[in-house]
Design brief:
It is built from three helices and eight strands. By secondary structure, it is an alpha+beta fold. Helix 1 runs antiparallel to helix 2 (about 45-60).
């Protein structure tokens, strides 16, 4: 079992879903960030609960060598889409994406199936793209 799959099982046991894990360096500190989601959002109390659940596992199986800080949070309303499941979870949201051939799309994500992403641009055009052709994508919120 991998560390990520163990974390996934732990957060699912308390009704959360694992969105992503990442190792970051900020201000000379190493951060192991665990992003979780839940229907209706994730409260601070739920993040604390997940932190208390995950922390003992990381004492036994550290994610990095040396000192690090565990951070459990929601991925936020504006977040990067890295995996196909991220796209599936974001159907109905506004997205910005770029493809390997440098094409850019801005609109509503209306579909994610069979390893293809469908977006309806602000101009009303629908584009279906292979997931593997997407180089960068994120959700965004219009204020």
């Amino acid at each position: 079992m991998s560390l990520e799959s163990d974390i996934k099982k732990m957060v699912e046991s308390i009704g959360l879903s694992l969105y992503d894990t990442a190792i970051l360096n900020e201000n000379d500190q190493t951060i192991f960030r665990v992003s979780v989601t839940a229907p209706g959002g994730v409260s601070l109390d739920r993040c604390v609960e997940a932190t208390h659940l995950i922390s003992p596992l990381l004492d036994v199986t550290p994610p990095v060598g040396g000192d690090y800080r565990l951070e459990v949070s929601s991925p936020g309303i504006e977040r990067k889409l890295k995996t196909f499941s991220h796209f599936v979870q974001s159907i109905g949201e506004k997205v910005l994406l770029s493809t390997i051939d440098k094409s850019k799309y801005d609109g509503e994500l209306i579909g994610a199936q069979n390893d293809e992403i469908t977006i309806r641009t602000k101009e009303g055009e629908e584009h279906t793209l292979p997931f593997r052709s997407i180089s960068k994508a994120k959700t965004y919120f219009e204020w």
